[in-house]
Structure to design on (472 residues):
RNA sequence: GGAGAGGUGGCCGAGUGGUUUAAGGCGAUGGUCUUGAAAACCAUUGUACGGUUCUCCGUACCGCAGGUUCGAAUCCUGUCCUCUCCGCCA
């Protein structure tokens, strides 16, 4: 979520930033947000003032009625005068009468029950008006909040301004192409031939875009996950095992909801959802907490399955296991101060690249342009591996700095050193890495003419020292 | 899944409709005293939003959401969570 104060104070600047995102619907919400924010503040001030007056009157009346020293006749007279004052909207006078700070006017006399009854009636009317006012403010705030939840994050000034993903800036390829002196095959041919991917049975169990890994396929994936986690740990991330099913509020916190509600799977009869990425769980790990600056940066890593409905991608990438409903991912995550978040983004992206290099698979970095940033990121890099069988670049990691966008949604704050004034930390997430795609890259880069696959050197210790996967 | 007991500030813990504007204690922070420390004493103490603009003021928050009432931590309803016992299970 964006800072409402920023929109209020620099509306034109915010609009100018949002224009870079190629998201007209969001841009058009700004004026309505400004209008609602103005209304809400005027109304709230007015109602809270009335509320303060009523609270004082209630308290003063209770005190007066319970007073052991004052004669009933005076209590009744004061209540009568206060009732009249409330009726005339003179709340100060009413309060002064009730708490005894002004003297009674001469000639006041009144029936005890009738006077208090009348005063209570006036207070009830006052309370009804206040309740109506709060209802209006709450309705305004609900609409305002809903609009705010639909606003994307603003891009960092360093992000290249272009409309679409075709303009993403691709860096140089790193690492050498492996020598393949035959026509490389795609993984959807290699996998079934080796008996390590079973597409038909995956479809039988769960439908299209599901698959079964068998034997070396399943083992290779498990080895990759262990390898990824070990790398992250060596880089100072502490490992988490989290629930794979979370409350819907968590999806709002990490900004999948409300905009991308149809991309996740829900649990029937419950307001809970399967993780589309571990980012959702980790973002909300410290939800509603206030951290200390001394604890930052907090570095976490978690391996989880990821479930995505991929409705928006119907018909795309239907062959093989590039785009599936369930996959495994190791996610790196950082909570940092605003001052250090961009330096940490570079570090995290480099760490993702290092894993590609260790696997000895050619890769490149993409600098994502404003029009392709997505909803939450202020800046983003993708890492792609080259895969010769299907002859394309596969996105195996995406590293983002969301700045305070998710922290604000998840009510996550920290105390700066020596201060009790809370700030929002910045949150960063990056894959390190995701498995079916890395497996594709391994199979297609390390394939040999006979259809067997050489196991990358760094994985061999995870696989009992084996160096090749063949049909045997 | 069944039965019972609970949920109050950073922590412990009082609080059965209006002197509670959440007592008291612990912790933390600042100060006094001290060569230093401890002890003692004094002061301060959360979050969000709004107003004000660097200092205050106001409103809300006692698991959460509704309700009753002039007024709710307190009464009512629902819900979530925790603990104990039983059942089931890896």
């Amino acid at each position: 979520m964006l800072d409402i104060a920023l929109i209020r104070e620099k509306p034109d600047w915010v609009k100018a930033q949002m224009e870079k995102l190629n998201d007209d619907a969001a841009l058009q919400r700004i004026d309505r947000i400004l209008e609602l924010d103005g209304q809400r503040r005027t109304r709230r001030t007015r109602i809270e003032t009335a509320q303060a007056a009523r609270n004082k009157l209630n308290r003063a009346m209770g005190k007066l009625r319970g007073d052991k020293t004052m004669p009933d006749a005076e209590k009744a007279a004061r209540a009568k005068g206060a009732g009249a004052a409330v009726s005339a909207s003179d709340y100060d006078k009413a309060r002064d009468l009730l708490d005894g700070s002004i003297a009674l006017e001469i000639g006041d006399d009144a029936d005890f029950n009738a006077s208090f009854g009348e005063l209570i009636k006036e207070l009830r009317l006052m309370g009804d008006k206040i309740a109506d006012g709060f209802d209006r403010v709450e309705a305004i705030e609900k609409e305002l909040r809903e609009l705010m939840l639909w606003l994307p994050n603003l891009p960092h000034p360093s992000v290249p301004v272009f409309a679409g993903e075709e303009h993403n800036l691709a860096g140089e390829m790193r690492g050498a192409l492996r020598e393949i002196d035959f026509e490389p095959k795609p993984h959807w041919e290699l996998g079934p031939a080796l008996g390590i991917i079973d597409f038909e049975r995956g479809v039988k169990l769960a439908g299209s875009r599901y698959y079964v890994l068998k034997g070396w396929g399943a083992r290779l994936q498990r080895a990759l996950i262990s390898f990824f986690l070990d790398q992250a740990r060596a880089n100072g991330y502490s490992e988490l095992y989290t629930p794979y099913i979370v409350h819907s509020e968590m999806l709002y916190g990490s900004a999948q909801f409300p905009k991308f509600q149809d991309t996740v799977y829900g649990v029937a009869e419950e307001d809970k959802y399967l993780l589309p990425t571990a980012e959702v769980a980790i973002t909300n790990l410290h939800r509603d907490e206030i951290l200390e600056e001394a604890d930052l940066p907090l570095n976490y890593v978690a391996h989880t399955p990821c479930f995505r409905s991929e409705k928006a991608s119907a018909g795309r990438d239907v062959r093989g296991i590039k785009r599936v409903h369930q996959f495994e991912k190791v996610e790196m995550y950082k909570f940092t101060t605003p001052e250090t978040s961009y330096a940490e983004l570079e570090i995290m992206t480099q760490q993702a690249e290092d894993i590609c290099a260790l696997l000895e698979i050619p890769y490149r970095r993409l600098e994502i342009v404003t029009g392709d940033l997505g909803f939450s990121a202020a800046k983003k890099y993708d890492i792609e591996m080259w895969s010769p069988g299907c002859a394309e670049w596969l996105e195996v990691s995406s590293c983002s700095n969301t700045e305070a966008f998710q922290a604000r949604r998840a009510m996550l704050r920290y105390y700066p050193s020596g201060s009790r004034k809370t700030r929002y930390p910045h949150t960063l997430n990056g894959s390190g890495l995701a498995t079916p795609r890395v497996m594709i890259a391994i199979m297609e880069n390390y394939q040999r003419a006979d259809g067997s696959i050489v196991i990358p050197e760094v994985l061999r210790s995870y696989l009992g020292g084996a160096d090749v996967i063949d049909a045997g």
